[in-house]
Structures are given as C-alpha cells and as structure tokens.
Amino acid sequence: MSEFAFLNGNEAVAWGVRLSRPHVIAAYPITPQTKAVEKLSSFVQNGEMDCKYLHVESEHSAMACSIGSSSVGARTFTATSSQGLLYMSEGLPYASGARLPIVMMNANRSIATPWNIYGDQMDAMHVINSGWVQLFVEDAQEALDMVIQSFKLAENHDILTPVMINVDGFVLTHTYEKVDIPGQELVDSFLPAIEKAPHLMNDQDPMSLCISAGNQHYMEFKIKQHRDMFKVFEQLERIDRDFEKSFGRSHGGAADGYRNEDADVILVTTGSVTGTARVVVDSLREKGIKAGLVKLRLLRPFPSDDLYELIGKASAVGILDKNISFGFEGTVYTNVNSSLLQKGYRGRTFNFIAGLGGRDITKENIEEMFSALLEQKGETVQYFNMGCAL
Amino acid sequence: MRDFKMSPRPQWNSLSDVPMGSSCSSFHICDANAAWRVFRPVMDYSLCIGCHQCYLLCPDGAIHKEDAKVFHIDYDFCKGCGICAHQCKPGAISMVKEDQA
Amino acid sequence: MIKKLNARNIDAKECFYGHKACGGCGESLALRLALKVLGEEAYLSLPAGCMAAVSFIYPNMAFKNNAVITPFASTAAVATGIAAGLEALGKEAPLSVGFAGDGGTADIGIQSLSGAIDRGEKFIYICTDNEAYMNTGIQKSGLTPFGAATTTTPAGKAIHGCVTEKKNMFEIAAAHGITYAATASIGYPEDFLNKVQKAKECDGPAYIHIYTPCPTGWGHGSKITVDLAKEVVDTGLWFLAEYEDGEFRLNRKPGDFKPVADHLKRQARFRHLSDEEISQIEVMRDRKWEKMLKNWG
C-alpha cells in the first residue's frame, strides 16, 4: 500500500533508495545532500533497511567503494553535491567506462570560490562528460520515483551505465511536499533483484575489470560506450510507461513539453525552476500569448530528436542555464544550440543565465525571459536578477 | 604450474565484438615473453638437490614443480632474469646466451 | 594450528602469470607469492601502477583471479567496496585484497587506506614497497629512503639525492589499532608467506608492508633482486616485525648488522653517497633500532 507523507527532496530520495533495496550505500556528508544520507543511515541503524552502509572518509572513496561493490554485482547507491562531486569526479569515468550501474543523487550546488552552499547546477555541468546518465528532476515526487526508475535503467543489460539524479539544492532538497511513497511490494515487482551483468567480477568466470587498452583498442571501447548510451532514450521511455502502469503516474521521457505544441516562444528548463516556469506559461497563455515550455530531463544522453520535435516550430527559444561555462555561455545552451543546428532549426535562440549561487529566479524574471523571446530583443546571452549593472 | 591455454588475439569486426565495460576474462594471455630473454637458464638435473629455491623465487612463476625434485622451466614465459641460477646453491642452473643455447 | 608454509608445501598452481614486469622484478615476486597463499578465490584491487600496467593490458590479463584496476588513490576503498558488495550478496567469507606500491600507499592512497582500516571490515592490504614511483619513471615517493637518487631527487651538486627518510607506514597502519600488520621482505619469502597466511586468517583489516627491490629503478642486476631484499634486513635498513593484539613484535633481531656500504653500493641509486652520508644512514638505522628494541623488544 502506498502512503502520502510530507517529505523534502532529500527524504524523498532516501525513501526511493530504501524501496529499491540496494545492497551497499557508500556516502559522505555534504550540504545540502546531508539529510538524505542521514535518513538512509537511520533506516539502516533502525533495521528498516538490510544494507551495508559504508561510512567513507571522503567522496573520492564514496565513489571508489561504489565502484568496488558494483563491480561484483551489488546494487549500489551513493549521494553527493558540489565540491564532493568534483572530488569524486576522478572515479566517475571509471564507473561509466566499466559499465557499472551505480545510482547517485547529486544535490545541485554552486562551486567555490566564492564559497557558497546554495543551489545552482554548476556541479553537474562540471562532470557532463563523465559518461554518466545525467537526469534532472523537478520535484520531490519525481526524485523518489526516479531513484527507482534509475536502478532499473542503469541495470538494464543494454544500458549498464551509472545514473546521476540531479536534485536542485535547497529548492528541492529542503522543501517539503506531499509525496506518495509507493508500497514495497509494488516496487519489488517493478524493480526485481539486480541481475548481474556477465562482464562483472564473479566466481564462475573470473574477470579483469577497468583494464588498460592501448591506442589499438581504446577508441573502440569508448565508441561502444558512447553508442550504447543512446539506448537510454528508448529504455527510459519504456521504463516510465511501465512505471505508470504500476504506480499510476509518469514523468515523461528524455524531454517533456508543456503547452508547447502551438507555442511561438519556448523556454527550455532543467530541474526545479520548471515549476515556476509552468505558472508563468499559464498566466501568459491567459493573456493570449503563445508561450510554451520544454523540460529537459536528460542532459546525457542529450535528446536531440525529442528536443527538435518539441520546439522545432517555435520562432524563438530561450535556454535557462543555472550555470555558466566561463568565457563562453551556459552549458545547456551550448548543447541545445548544437543539436538544433544539426536539425536545421531556423528560429533564434537566447541564453538566460540565472540563479547562480542560489539567487532567486522569480516569476518576473521568467516573464522577462519570455518578453525577450517574443520581441527577440537583447543580447544572445543575458543575465537575470543581477544586483548591479554589467 | 601454468594454468591457462594461450588465447588468440581478438579480432573485432564490429562494436558488438568489443568487450562490455573495459573488461576481459582473467588469465587471458595472447603473447609469450620469450623474446625478452638474452640468457636462458638451463638446468642440470644431476646437480639439483631439490631445494625449491628456483621455484620459490622466480618472479614469473616460470619454474614449475613437477615433483619434489623435478623442476621444469617454461621458456615461453621465462625472461632470463637469472634469479634462479643466482640463488641455486649447488649451481645446477647455468645462464646460457640464447644464440648459444 | 595453522600449517607453516614453505617452498615445499605452497600451492603449485600459479595465479599470476605471463605478466610484463621487468625481468627480476621484486614486486611481481611478492604478488606471485602472496597469491600462492591467498588463492584464486581472492578478489584483487590494484591501482594504476607497475603491477596494473604489466598485468591488465588488453588483451593480456595476467591474473587468474577476479581483479580490478582502481583509481590511484583508491586501492583500499575499492577493496572494501568489493568486500561489502560480496558480503551483501551473501558470499560466505569473501576475501578482498588490495595491492599497491609505496606511492599508492604512503602518498596518494593513505587517506583511503586509513578510512578503510578505520571501518574495521575484513580486507587485506599489501604494500609492495620499491621506494619510488617506478611506473612513471622512478620519482621520489614518501617511502624513498634518505640518500636515494630518483628522477625527482637526483644526486645533484647541491642536494645529494633524497633528503627525507621513509615514512613509518607500518607503524601508521598499526596506529589505527588494526587487527594485524606486518613487515616483510622478498629476501625472506617464507616469513612473508606465513604473514600473508596470518592476514588471511585474521578477523579484520590486515596490512603487510613488503620490501621489493626494483632492478630498473635501483640500478642493479636483475639476478640480485632477492639478495638485496635479504641484505636490507641483515644490514638493519629494513626490519621484520608484526603488530598483533595491540602489540608490536620484532621477528628478527640481528646481532651484528652486515655492512651498509657494501649493500648500498650494489645499487646505482646510492653510488653517489659519500662515506659521511653512509655514516649518516647508519646513525639513522641505529636510532630506529634503538627505539624498536626499546618499545617492541
């Protein structure tokens, strides 16, 4: 039986993990992820989860322990944020190159310096090329559900790729929402025990893992990994459809449109800001303005086809980036622009940089973004809610 | 005791032949090390006292023990480092230049 | 009572074979001997370094065991992750073993080793110490001894090799209150085999620090690798000891040390040393032994 509870994003993730029955959790505390690992620890310490919890001395070891446990076929979870993600980042391509189905929550947070503990998405963008599936969620319910879906996705033998679930720091991790906690039996039937992939270490046919490959072989290993990552789109859609059948709600595939079909102008968002943007779109629609929204759920693999299908007809597209690639532009913008160019998109694109270091992104800011799109005015890259002139 | 058969070098015709996830079966050996050798150890069994030191101290494990007094050198994998001959107290192993062996 | 291991009764089967280590490599001998005791069931973790480089290059895999290359800093973390994973999957008495060199242990890997020992889970960590970063071309590590020339501490005109002494890695491991720790040398192979056996049997983390000469890095003939590893103990420059039940114990107390100079001069890395510097090394040795005999005697 499912039950409703008021949970913050951290707790929702912890519940998603508990219901997914991992064998091993290795984690290190960091704001704003801390409450997730505290909650998981309490589940374990109270005997509510049958799981090995490794109290590691650093994020680097959190990832390394996860690599170890996943490489023998154990279902493995870890969680981190910001500097912690950067500290463990050496291990990320190890895990993805070895095709280890680890699931990790990343509580999105800014990167020092200046030191700042609040939310933006600079951390995730730092590791966008790590070979992990990069998923962004909009609310606590989606966070809980995507933990369960992510294990199913990562462990699929066509995929075998680790998944990073990005949960916006504070805005999601610390905000309480009404969340439906699915019943354990239902989750068990949706997400059965992990089936060990044949390339992982095992007693019957010992394997050498994370091997070295010279210039005669390296490229084929990496291109295989790259090509297999595109299989995520189809599997994620299938998993989400099955999820809907079991749990009565779905979250869409790689990208999800909102009032986009006939939209003149579209804003592309990732994560929690999508909720605010939906409200603005509704109010603009009431005024007769054909505004729409596309929520990018996956940044890796990047859903070029879906994206073009969702926004191809709009005359202008704005990409909201809670990050910046210094000396260039927002990272999501670079990705969207490149994929639209490949598809032959002819409209104008704008990049809206906002929300760095936890700066509010207000409804008014989003309205300003839409008016920039409607009038196609201003610089290509624009900064919002700045406290001073540029 | 060598416990594997030499494997052929893999041929990849398509990406589906490439192993999943930077992995390979363990004890998958395609190439011998014999070409590394300048001197080869040659055993004079009449002098061997069965002390086991050559077998114990070979970094390559290339000296196999068949019974307590018969030690067999695997010339496919011996690199000719000379530890066995050097450690052999009765002098039962001599290092012979490859082209004179 | 555990049977004492020796050359005659160890497993004839080889679990480490066909590797591409240099001829006369001491480190590869340590791994080979350890695996004779650990057996093919052990899961192995090795960081990027010589032993990974010589045994995992596709398509040649030199381990019979399940084995994984870890991030450089992460030998102990990956090994304990493997142990936890196997245990959680219900495997009875899983054996997870990390092998790392001196740099991988005393420098970049010391944090994860400390964390892993602190967690108290059963795993074995074997540090194969050849006293410099050999895989990258003989750079100084935290375990390079005083006076040794490396490519980052060359025998220069102003500074004559490495100016620091080896970190006391064995004591550092023991200071965690580890279940079992020991030092060893491939010059005393049977002592090593039995220490690995003890580590395998003990119920908790175990650390073994083994001295493994490197012909390439030290500049000595490949045939004298084992000689040097024996001499280093006989000269008192290395020691055989154990830490068990919270107590240190010296396994071997040499009466008279063999001459240090003869031993050092067989290695190119020490050939530049003056008589004065060699005397300094003897003073350091005597100071260390004085402490060890007093505290662990």
From TrEMBL, chain A:
It is an enzyme of class 1 (oxidoreductase). InterPro entries: PFOR_II (IPR033412), Pyruvate:ferred/Flavod_OxRd (IPR050722), Pyrv_Fd/Flavodoxin_OxRdtase_N (IPR002880), THDP-binding (IPR029061), Transketo_C/PFOR_II (IPR009014). The keyword Amino-acid biosynthesis does not apply. It comes from the Bacteria. Keywords: Oxidoreductase, Pyruvate. One of its GO terms (molecular function) is pyruvate synthase activity. Residues 263-366 form the Pyruvate:ferredoxin oxidoreductase core domain. Its EC number is 1.2.7.1. One of its GO terms (biological process) is response to oxidative stress. SUPFAM superfamilies: Thiamin diphosphate-binding fold (THDP-binding), TK C-terminal domain-like. The keyword ATP-binding does not apply. Residues 21-232 form the Pyruvate flavodoxin/ferredoxin oxidoreductase pyrimidine binding domain. Signal peptide: none annotated. This is Pyruvate ferredoxin oxidoreductase alpha subunit. It comes from Spirochaeta isovalerica. The lineage of its organism: Bacteria, Pseudomonadati, Spirochaetota, Spirochaetia, Spirochaetales.
Automatic annotation (TrEMBL), chain B:
It comes from Spirochaeta isovalerica. Keywords: 4Fe-4S, Iron, Iron-sulfur, Metal-binding, Oxidoreductase, Pyruvate, Repeat. PROSITE patterns: 4FE4S_FER_2 (PS51379). Signal peptide: none annotated. InterPro entries: 4Fe4S_Fe-S-bd (IPR017896), PorD_KorD (IPR011898). Its EC number is 1.2.7.1. This is Pyruvate ferredoxin oxidoreductase delta subunit. GO terms for molecular function: 4 iron, 4 sulfur cluster binding; metal ion binding; pyruvate synthase activity. Residues 39-68, 69-98 form the 4Fe-4S ferredoxin-type domain. Its cofactor is [4Fe-4S] cluster. Pfam families: Fer4_21.
Automatic annotation (TrEMBL), chain C:
Pfam families: TPP_enzyme_C (PF02775). One of its GO terms (molecular function) is thiamine pyrophosphate binding. Its EC number is 1.2.7.1. InterPro entries: PorB-like, THDP-binding, TPP_enzyme_TPP-bd. Coiled coil: none annotated. SUPFAM superfamilies: Thiamin diphosphate-binding fold (THDP-binding). Residues 49-210 form the Thiamine pyrophosphate enzyme TPP-binding domain. Keywords: Oxidoreductase, Pyruvate. The keyword Iron-sulfur does not apply. It comes from the Bacteria. This is Pyruvate ferredoxin oxidoreductase beta subunit.
